[in-house]
Design brief:
With about 280 residues, the chain is an alpha/beta fold. The protein folds into 2 domains: about 80 residues, Winged helix-like DNA-binding domain superfamily/Winged helix DNA-binding domain (Arc Repressor Mutant, subunit A, Orthogonal Bundle), CATH 1.10.10.10; about 160 residues, Rossmann fold (3-Layer(aba) Sandwich). It has 14 helices and 5 strands. α4 packs across α5, α8 packs parallel to α13 and α10 packs parallel to α13. The radius of gyration is 22 Å and the shape is elongated.
Length: about 280
Amino acid sequence: MPAKKATVFESIDANYASLSKTQRRIADFLRKNYDQAVFMTAGKLAEKLATSESTVVRFATAIGYNGYPHLQQNLRDSIKTILTTRQKIATQLEPESFEGSLRLSFLRDISDVRTTFEHLDMSMIHDIAHGIRQANHVYLLGMRSSKVLVDYLDFYLSFLHENVIPFHHGVADHFDQIINLEPGDVVIVVSFPRYAAITIDLAQIIQAQGNPIYAITDSPEAPINQYADKSIYATYSIDSFIDSHVAPMALINALITAVAYDNLEAADQKFKRLEEIWLKHGVYI
């Protein structure tokens, strides 16, 4: 697992003694009001603290960041697991036009997909796709809003693999299913902030049994990575109280495509038979 990078709060603590009086005021504000600061520009933060924008930028450099945008992104990474839905909603209540809010929603999703694509590990996707193809059974695990992604993956992956098994929703059922895992089975774990504790607990048990875990998550610092054998990442934004799964779904689409290409002839024959059945029974209009 990659070394965990320092959070903004840890960087502040490490450099606090060397900060100026004004910089300490900025540091104190970030620590106490991170849920507000994460959505504030350098100019707005400066205005809030009655200082200059350049002072805010120098503060970011003083605690080890390459400017304020770098600090803000790391602040988002630092707090994404603790920022509640209620706090996210509160940040959205600042005056802004209806049209502006909708545009920002689309722009956020576009940015997330672009960033995910730019950092895509093609060889890792290929390795995971091959592992899925070779597995006897493919189990899918994801809780809370990540369950939506599991359902999506289940629907399409079942066309390409005969034994795709999503974990049932009840906690007791999860433990019952784990004991059914056999050598040759793999588990795909989908885990995005706010990370569900039960997902990590189950992954620990699965790892102890020796079954490979393939993680679909948001970053190398995600807690699931301590138990995952292989991981792929989709950018996750916290700029809205809605958990947007546009980028994770795009990544899942890429993975499903890779699974098909791992044995393209077999996939083609499978879909040919399915189309014949769908046509015969009038599945589609």
